[in-house]
What we know:
By secondary structure, the chain is of the alpha+beta class. It is built from 3 helices and 11 strands. The protein has an 8-stranded antiparallel β-barrel with strand order 2-3-4-5-6-7-8-11. The longest helix has 14 residues.
Amino acid sequence: MRNAAHFATIALALLLSGCWWEGPPFYRGDPRDAGPVAPGWYRVDVLGKNERPIVQHVEWLANGETRTTPRRVTREDGVGHFVATRLEVPGRHLWIIQSRGDEKPDTAAIYGLVERHGDLLDIAFPIDCDSSAEIVRAAGGTVSGGSRPEAIDMTPTETRRHRRKGAPDPHVEPTTVMTPTTGPVQNQHCTFADRSSLERALVAYATAHPHLDGGLLLRKLSD
């Protein structure tokens, strides 16, 4: 759930909302300092993926949002809108990313982080709730919902068949029969009621992750 995606299309992650860090839209953005990437045209390479680079336009809007638009807009690479606000962590160049699927008053914002290293952007957006639930609780956020995967009988098919017939399986040794297990809780919902608890959680997350999930390499082409 924590892939490094094109910063032009991060809003697409909102379609999967439910197991990310969410809360009211706490930030408005500063049109004079609207994000980690200055306005202009960029060549964007996704590190670690064998994909062709895309050409991207970055704008700082008067309402404090950043808008990103690929040269060719497709279903996979659409126009993105988000608010970026600096997060003060010593020795790091971090930005809080806030994005919403629409402007309805009851639409929750999704939160994550971006870190700038010269021409490299490290991204943790959106932040997965399941793997960070303890950080959220410790910071004063709320973790709710979720379920454990159903137990799966891993006993070999032939063994189960013989069990139903009431006879032992002559072909499978008893040591090969695996005990059904369940995994960790999945699809939990992490929410923040106030800005201070969100920022405590983001600082704790950044401290626990000296390197975020993955990177984009940016090369500026023109203004």
